[in-house]
## 1
Amino acid sequence: MLNRILAVALIAGALTGVAVTGLQMVWAIPLIQAAETYEAKAVTEPKSGQPVLAADGHAHSHGPAETLKQAEWAPKDGFERTFWTLLTNVLMAVGAGLIMAAAFSLKSEVDLPTGLAWGGAAFLAFALAPAMGLPPELPGTQAADITERRLWWALTTLGTAAGLALVYYGPQTWMKAAGLVAIILPHLIGAPHPEIRGALAPVELQNQFILASLTTSLVFWVLMGALTGFLTARFGAAASPQHVPT
């Protein structure tokens, strides 16, 4: 069984990672590169003595040495960016595939529709629900404290996942009601946002990136679920004993 779970996760993860990387290369990454041009222009502004809006919402001027210290490593455009994007996507997909395949091994019947349903639920929990409070952001966007954002993201993801499970599998009405509360509660608390919001990229570019990111996440999770369900069913059928009539 363990070998079957590993095989399903590796195959489904590799195929999903390649497909999602291809989609990102033609859609999301060009938007990121466009936003990086605005960020690069803002970094060079201090050389002419112009102020830059800092993370605290106030204008500051920086010298060339300080500007270099603020620079962070980023993959170069071309092969390097593509390689790291592909590697990250494949590793994430394999990890998700391991969890999903292990869960499917506990079910008596698994097929393609089962995988699609699980993939759709994962998209709701890991992408759509968090994006309702913290939408995907381009480089150069003002953001709240990263620890607060991570805590809210974790609360929203866990609450949505647990809530969906209770709504679907809960045998009693109060369990289904508790599931709805778990889904809604993080949004009632509210996602953390900076006191002063702002972004270097134009609003139209930000909206395009949100759409591209959510669409890519949808493809990731639905394809991951579909492949995991399909391969689990196929490998399970191949491993089951064949009854030959006598």
## 2
Amino acid sequence: MGLGARVRQLRQSRGLTQEQLAGRELTKSFISLLEREKASPSVETLGLLARRLGTSVDALLGSQDRLPEQVATGLLSLSAEALRKRNAPHAKELLSTVSILSRTYRLDETDRELVLQWAQVALIDRDFNTASALAVEAKSRAEQARDLWRMGRALLILGTAALQRRDIPAARKHLERSLETLRKAKASRDPARVEALTHLASALVYAGDYPRAIARYQEAARAQVAQQHPVLRARALWGLGAAYRHQGDLNTAYETLLASRDLFEKGEELDDLARVLHNLGQVAVEQEHFKDALRHFHHALRVAERLKLPTIRAGVLTEIARVHVALGTLDDAAAFAAQALSQARAVDDPIEVAEVHIVLARIAFARGNDTEAAKLLKTAAEIFTAQGMPHRVAELAREAGMALIER
């Protein structure tokens, strides 16, 4: 890690703006250039920066007596990159080495970062209880050290875990606090802010607040750091397309999702590619382009099965079943719905379980079994209510009415 990166990381962890770090003696522009490795400070300036950052000149320069700390920092940078690529096995190897260094040399700041990254590993492994427990620990340590940057990132992990568990109220609370804390940490250019914006927007979509969701997605897509990291921009565009779809702007949704798909393909982010293909299929269904929809869904299913992504697989199977209901091929619909229900229960995704119940109800309606259909819809409504999704209950009532009309 270079001098500029060390200055930026320390500044953010201390909650300082570039202007505050510069003070009267320096300028904000100089700090900006320094952090981008485009300026070289004098010895006097190094001393000034070290005092304001609460560290030593040796630590800033990576001198030999700080070698364990610098090695740990370098390994943490590599593991952070592995986590961005969702390469949990490689991240675990690196973090295990850092753990030994941290215990041996009592590296407090390294230890705070270590707990955060282990929480991120747990998120990738879908161990949401462990991720949340580690994030709570990381948040507590960051609060004690007044490390606002890591506090904000810990809240991001708590919000992400809650979102993955479909606990929408908790997700919104944690993610809003994450954004506020990162703002106080002056971390406007940190990727964590874009991730928090994107996840908060996703929570707003689940809550049915589409205008605010679109505004948050647009803010994330326009962020400077998203321009420098195409995958972050692709994720924001992906969510934006999904929100447009929920508002009924299908043409804009389709074009936005295609732009996201292209960025994911270019970056070889296959798990995200599977998800955006899923959404493209959903839009095609609403446009009544059923052949295109099945093409997108089966492509997504192949990717999900290749990468062993059970949650995505459950959602895609549900959508394929829904298309077969629309086409009137009820036996195929029932077969795919049965697979979807089994997979959704296996990954403990209550919202997907509810969605499958709706498809099964449509099949029951089409076959003239109104009593069974009503029971299935009641179960779906109860699940949506328990998950804090009253708007979905209202949509469900409309869907039930349409099913009766179609029969």
